[in-house]
Amino acid sequence: MSNVTVDTMCTEARVIVTCGTGGVGKTSVAAALGAHAAALGRRVCVITIDPAKRLADAIGLAYDLGNIPQQVDIVATGELWVTMLDVRETFDNLVRDTSPTPERAREVMENSFYRNLSRSLSGTRDYMAAERLYELSNDERFDLIIVDTPPSRNALDFLESPERLARFLKHPIVRLLVAPSRGGLRFANAALTPVLKIISNIVGSDALSGVAAFLRAFDGMENEFARRALSVAATLRSNATSFVVVTAPSPDALKEADHFVSELDRLGITLRLVVANRMPPHFGTGTSEDEHRLATESTGALAVAHALLATMQEDAEQADAGITAFLERSRGRFADLSEARANELPSDIHDMESISLLAQQLAAPQPRQ
Ligand SMILES: Nc1ncnc2c1ncn2[C@@H]1O[C@H](COP(=O)(O)OP(=O)(O)O)[C@@H](O)[C@H]1O
Ligand SMILES: [Mg+2]
Q1: What are the structural domain ranges in the chain?
Q2: Which residues lie with the beta carbon below 6 Å from any ligand 1 atom?
Q3: pLDDT digits (tens, 9 = 90+) for 215-264
Q4: Measured in angstroms, how far is the CA atom of residue 231 from the centroid of ligand 1?
Q5: Model's pTM, two decimal places?
Q6: Does domain 6-363 correspond to CATH entry 3.90.930.50?
Q7: 233 CA distance to ligand 1 middle (Å)
Q8: Ligand 1, atom 13: nearest CA belongs to which residue?
Q9: Residue 10 near residue 34 (C-beta atoms within 8 A)
Q10: What pLDDT, on the 0 to 100 scale, is given for residue 188?
């Protein structure tokens, strides 16, 4: 896939991930790409891993979203489904799925360390986002999964979490905690004791015995955990996945967009598409210079109108220049990068009608593909 259009991306990708800073329209763009792909006949599931309830709001749903995908009522040859990551539920399901017996699943889920882990740690959130993506991309109801990431700078951490988890599970200390009574470990355990003492001084001995009990209950499940984690990591790095950076034309948004572009580069992931959203529209065909000239050459209301048009054209030209410079910088890292632009619509994006308007703009022929 080189120089993709929005249409080819929506037709061919198995996974699309939108990223960018807050307020640029990631969630709206994720929903719009979903609606467009559904119109092209695909069975799409948009998952938001942002705990804010913006996805339901953007498509005008009257109810909150949870872990179970809901089908959106639209006229399309394909289907549009939406869901919001529930970390706890995903973790519980994963434990149930991978436990050898229901008793073992219960033992893990009742463990205090597990309960803390599944509720609070931000790393868990990243990992569960990856796990949920694994499940959805293996769900036969869907042929395209669109991931809407949270607005934080480290929104892409979830991309690294599968490898991090797989590494963690293979760590010698973890292996020892998992199976302390197995042959040959007496000596190793003795060697480990000072390390465990230090850890227990930091986290408290109750917490540590909780961890040990958790890891023991967990024994044998880690291979399946790691297998899934690595499988989703491979999907995210394959040609089946397209990454999209969404930005607005303001200098602040572009600075953050630069950050996401370099993060993707660092992670060895190819950026396919930049969406320049919330662009100020061009009015008329003249440049701001033309309008300034016409303003000085005319009088009365006409002069005022031209002066106003001149200001609006200046805004639009500045926005174009900002985006063009950003694209040029980004093409230094990703030569085949495509772009799609969408104007600032007259109203907020809060229902399927506004989502379709946005989708139409994104899918329209673009300046350079
Ligand atoms: N093209 C657009 N035209 C008008 N309003 C937009 C557009 N794109 C996004 N918005 C508005 O901007 C706000 C943020 O959009 P959202 O999709 O939630 O962004 P993000 O997910 O990046 O934080 C919302 O109020 C939305 O209605
Ligand atoms: Mg959002």
Answers
A1: 6-363
A2: 20, 22-28, 54, 58, 151, 277-278, 342, 344-345, 348-349, 358
A3: 777 777 777 878 888 888 889 889 999 999 999 999 999 999 999 999 99
A4: 33
A5: 0.88
A6: no
A7: 29
A8: 23
A9: no
A10: 46
pLDDT-wise least confident of 38-42, 73-77, 331-335: 73-77
The tens digit of pLDDT for each residue in 10-67 reads: 999 999 999 999 999 999 999 999 999 999 999 999 999 988 888 999 999 888 899 9
Return the structure tokens found at 341: 């632009």
Query: Nearest Cα to 326, choosing from 256, 268, 242?
Result: 256
| Residue 23 alpha carbon, nearest atom of ligand 1 | 23
pLDDT digits (tens, 9 = 90+) for 292-307: 999 999 999 999 999 9
Write the residue with the smallest CA distance to atom 9 of ligand 1.
25
Which residues in 228-265 are b (16+ Cβ under 10 Å) and which e?
A: bbeebbebbeeeebbbbbbbbbbeebbebbebbbebbe
With contact defined as beta carbons under 8 Å apart, do 81 and 70 qualify?
A: yes
Which one of 65, 256, 349, 357 would you pick to mutate in the ligand 1 pocket, going by the greatest count of ligand atoms within 8 A of its CB? 349
Contact 148, 19 (CB under 8 A): no
DSSP state of 270: -
